[in-house]
Amino acid sequence: MSAYDELLDATIRHLEDLKSHGARYVAVAPETLRALAQPPVGGFQISNPKSRIETVATPLPSAQPAIPSAVGHSPLVIPRPAAEQPALLALPGETARVAAPLDPQAKAAAFAALRERAMACVKCPHLAASRKNVVFGVGNIDAHLMFIGEAPGADEDAQGEPFVGRAGQLLTKIIQATGLRRGDVYIANILKCRPDTPGQSAGNRKPTAEEMAACIPYLHEQIDLIAPRVIVALGAVAIEGLLGKAAGITKLRSHWQTYRGIPLMPTYHPAYLLRNQALSEKRKVWEDMLAVMEKLGMPVSQKQRNYFLKP
Ligand code: URA
């Protein structure tokens, strides 16, 4: 079997596994979709016609959820260009097509079903035993902007909501500084359970690679359903969990990455800003947020442009 066939088989097995867990579609970046439409050098050899993926060039309708503007939260409609929409390919055995986004009711139902599965998760038995709550995520499921952190801390575990402790309060301030409200965006973590710290009464630990690998499929489904236009990854662990890059956040921040076809901006975790109160570090995070606002077509006032600059 050629390397290409092995890869194809592995892809089919993965898609069938997703399907057996209830997934109906997978998100595919527009670039990938275009590349899939090109026959590989040497031509296709499809041994399993059931698994063939075809695309129908139906333009996706552009969903236009509102983002409140910086001034008084009046709705500012930012069209989502069709080219930016993650296209959805059918899984093996489904009638393959580029799917339109789910209607709002179906989307809410899919999100609720996902939440239910995550809330009952015992994939990491040690975390299922030690957690007070599964911290699924919070916010607007139609958000254009999604923030992804590392894992719940003690406060988040107690309240069942991400980013509610001191770092969370700072994240809320950062969101508000853009002119958005916390409820306009979606906030989640790489891990949905608090990493246990046996024998310790306080403190946090970094999630292990196994814990991240076990939990990431929930986040992938959240991202695919929400289909944000921009993701902000908060801190080195979020970057490692999403991009598999252990490259320092210091090097990566401010440089756009792509995740599941979506522009992703790495920036410092708000906990870092609590530890290092220098104006220069706050300004770096703010510059990353200015780039995010520009990418989303949000208005940026002169006052906002100058936040955290030396007087
Ligand atoms: N830090 C995170 O990364 N996530 C939270 O939810 C809280 C603190």
Keywords:
311 residues, alpha/beta, Uracil-DNA Glycosylase, subunit E, 12 helices, 10 strands, 13% strand, binds uracil
User: Bound small molecules, which ones?
Assistant: uracil
The end-to-end span amounts to 66 Å
Q: Identify the strand order in the major beta sheet.
A: 5-7-6-8-10-9
The number of E-state strands comes to 10
Give Rg in angstroms.
Answer: 20 Å
The CATH class of the largest domain is identified as: Alpha Beta
Sequence stretches where pLDDT stays below 50 over 5 or more residues? 39-79, 81-99
Secondary structure tally, helices? 12
**Class per helix and strand makeup:** alpha/beta
Largest sheet: 6 strands, mixed
- CATH architecture grouping of the largest domain: 3-Layer(aba) Sandwich
Residues in helix, %: 25-40%
Number of domains: 2
- Topology as H/E string? HEHEEEHHEEHHEHEHHEEHHH
CATH superfamily of the largest domain: Uracil-DNA glycosylase-like domain
Shape field: globular
Strand content: 5-15%
Q: What is the CATH T-level topology of the largest domain?
A: Uracil-DNA Glycosylase, subunit E
Mean pLDDT: 80
